Structure formats: C-alpha cells, structure tokens
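# step 3/5: fold
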Amino acid sequence: MKLWLVRHGQTQANLEGLYSGISETPLTERGISQAEAVGNMLNDVAFDKVLCSELSRAQHTTQLILQQREHPVITEPRLNEMNFGDWEMRHHRDLQRLDAENYAAWCNDWQNVVPNNGEGFQLFSQRVCGFASSLLVQPTEENVLIVSHQGVLSLFIATLLNMPPASLWHFVIEQGAWSCIEINDSFTTLRTLNNRAVYYPTS
C-alpha cells in the first residue's frame, strides 16, 4: 500500500503567521496554485481511496488535486489539525503580550501544557495514532491519498516509522509538494518527502 500525503495549500492565516488549528481560513491564490500543481504531479496515480480533513482548506485542496476526476472523498475528523483553543487565529507576538504566562509554559513544555480551551498534544497524538492504526488494519487499497495539515502529517509519518511522537519535528511538510510512504507486510518505508516532480508510474 502506498500513502500519498499532501498538506493543504497556503492559507491567509499561514501568510499572516497565525495559529490556525481548527479555524477556517481560505486558500490564497498561491495556495490554489500549489494545490493545482500537486494535482498535475499526481495526475497518473490511480487512487483507490481519498481521505481528507474536515477543514475547508484541506477539502478545497483535495478537490483541486482531483481536478476532473470523479472520486468520492471520505472526510476523516482525525485528520483535523490540533485545536489551539483560545489561541486560534492569534499571532505569537499577541500571545506573548496578552497571555504571556500560559504561552511561555506551553513553549517550554508543549507536549503537556494545554492551551486554554484547546486540545493539547497528548490528545492530538492519541487521535492521529488511532487513525494510523485503523489504516493499517487489513489494508486492501493500493493507493491512498491523504490530504491534511502540517502537524497531523508530521506526526503521522513519525508514528508509521515507529518513532516517538516528539519526533514529528523531524518532518517538515511543505505546501505545494507530495510525500509518499510505502507499507509492505507491516514494514514502512518513507519513499519521498516534499517531492515536486511529476510522478510517472513504473510498469
């Protein structure tokens, strides 16, 4: 089984440097172009299943990737980005000024400190790891497209490679690119990360 991983295109919140976990924020013109470019790169991949976050930036990216292909898209809430609670759509400079104590505590211990009314890394990690486990139960699909977010995809890769959750920082998922993980008999290989080339299937 091959997992084709794509991060949503650039959003307005990305452009402004805001925390946008579960908040809705539209793709910019660049983000639309990035998604369309990935669609062209993966045009020759025959997807057996398409899984996507609930959030509109991922849904929009998915539709642009699929272009004219009529393929059902399965919305998967476990692919949603982490909920930053009261820090949603705020810049770190504002948090350093308006919620300095809590923000400093989170920066120093991000795995355990939970943003006010947010999800926190422990629950986020359980959610993503649960998704990864469910995907590996008797896999029958050959090619699965997964469109999600930076934090989710980074943690997802670390989980499949049997690395600790904190290892997610080793995998920076870029916009306008695709990554691929191959799973054979429960052995996982990261085939490519942040690829921007057109994929040509081998015979």
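# step 4/5: annotate
Strands lie at 2-7, 49-52, 74-75, 143-148, 178-184, 187-195.
# step 5/5: archive (pending)
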